[in-house]
Amino acid sequence: MEEIENQQQQEKTQLLKGKTETSSLMEEDFLSVGYDKKYVILTYNQYLSKVSGGFGKLQAIGLLAIFLLKFVGQLVHMNIGFLKMMPEFLCQFPGAESQQVCSVKQFCDNEAYLIKEGITVSVNQTSSFSLANMVTKFDLYCSNKLQFMLFGGCMIFGHFLFLIFFSHLIDTKGRKNIILVGLFVCSGVLGIMMFIPGFDMFIYLMYACLIVLGVASGLLNLQGWIYIIEFIPKKYQAGAIIISNSGKGVALIVGAMFFLQFSKNQFWLFFLNIIFAFMTIYLIVKYIPESPKYFYMMKKYRKAREILEELGQKYQGRTIKAIFKDEAKDQNIEIDETYMESFQTEDNYTTRHEIQAIETQSKILREGYGVFDRTNFLKAFKGDKEFRMNTIGIIFCHAFSSFSFSLFTYLLPNLKGNIFLNGFLIGSFEVLAYCFSGLMMKLLGLRCQILLCYVISFFSAVLYSVFDFQGPSQLTNAILLALLMFGVAANMNSTLYAAYQCCPQELAATFFVIQSFITQFLVAFSPIIAEYNPGIVVFAFIVITFACFTVSYFIQYKNM
């Protein structure tokens, strides 16, 4: 008996070889993770797969949270078109016996930005197109275009501030804390916007609030996505992208239906946004812990394992204990590589080919990394030609797709037809586009799916341009516009997923931050361009779509 105990002690000592007092591994860890002489040593993704199992409560909560974060962050932004929409006017012209419906061009002095002398103007409050929005609040009827540009421009500027100054916070302060701060900031700013007086001087306070809301929106949309996606196994992440993006489409649908059916006052839209923000706060606080991958990337392996063990106990009904493979390597622990064989036969979660792929894909990374890992990203960009070409091509296509989508959203008040019908169909087709692109990814592969989406976008734009020239009915106009936006939304989703497929997994988050920065730079021009001729905008869109089709053809897609 003493000989057996001595042998076991020697084996344990060998496993703990290289361990120091500051090691994150404790002796009791090894006593509880193995079965006899075999120890479960996994990568992070393998551990997460074991904890989450198939699609269950954890994945459902994660997908709901990722949808709500996008919805809360985009509800105001997607409905800027309604918030800056001109109401219907009634004018009393000199010599006229009664009021008549009139337009801004008829009663505004474009040089003085004032109502022409002798004309009495009032808002037709009985019209469904007369909303209590930014325009009526601050009497911007004859204002210059700059003031309208700033409503969308301030939010985009807020996105820029987020990317420059705040995008690193989830690496230094933790995922969950930053997302909760973003939700509280979003709610607080919306509360202020609800009660801002309608005097001219307070419009600058409204602009400031929109900038802060843009920062909070960036936290919720980009950082929130990173936070939640780290709980979702890789095989469900394509669906998570679709559900997250659908939050934008649903936000536009809700806005159109809200102003048409429930209230014409923007006050209650802001209040609705606050309600959903607190619903999201409750969901995260009660059901979603700090991301274990945050601790894993910071090399706080013990804390990461504790969270994963708690998740396994909570959602699988069993405690799953293991050691991270990188953790074992960092501590110079000698590993019996036959653990792969036992891992494959135990639960059949990962094949040997997949394990090798995970290991070879990680060749760039060996030190701790975070969301914005500039050093390793630049190393890959300079040293890997394929990665460099993919980066340029994907960012080009995604940036112009996002720019086009933002542009047509801001164009809503200037497009022909019923703005409520246009908004509702665009939002509906956007959601369908995300589902369509996800389905086509599986049926055709990513390359063919992206090319097909650009074809749809191109011909939809051509048809929209032709039929708009012939003056179609409101429904026809709305359907053609929705088809154009269908292709744009599908392109956005496809190029977002292409980024995930075409770069090392460890650099995916960094890729998204850089892609978002460049995209936001281009999108920043959309509120400006939206105030000009829609016909020229559509023609330019057709040209850009053809260019994106050509560029996307040469991107090298992996795992197809």
From TrEMBL:
Main location, first listed in the record: membrane
UniProt superkingdom: Eukaryota
Transmembrane segments: 60-80, 146-166, 178-196, 202-228, 240-261, 267-288, 392-413, 419-436, 448-467, 479-500, 507-530, 536-555
Region annotation Disordered: where it falls in the sequence: 1-20
Biased composition (Polar residues): 1-13
InterPro entries: MFS (IPR011701), MFS_dom (IPR020846), MFS_trans_sf (IPR036259)
Localization annotation: Membrane
Entry keyword Zinc: no
GO cellular component, one term: membrane
Name of the featured protein: Organic cation
Lineage: Eukaryota, Sar, Alveolata, Ciliophora, Intramacronucleata
Gene: Contig12193.g13025
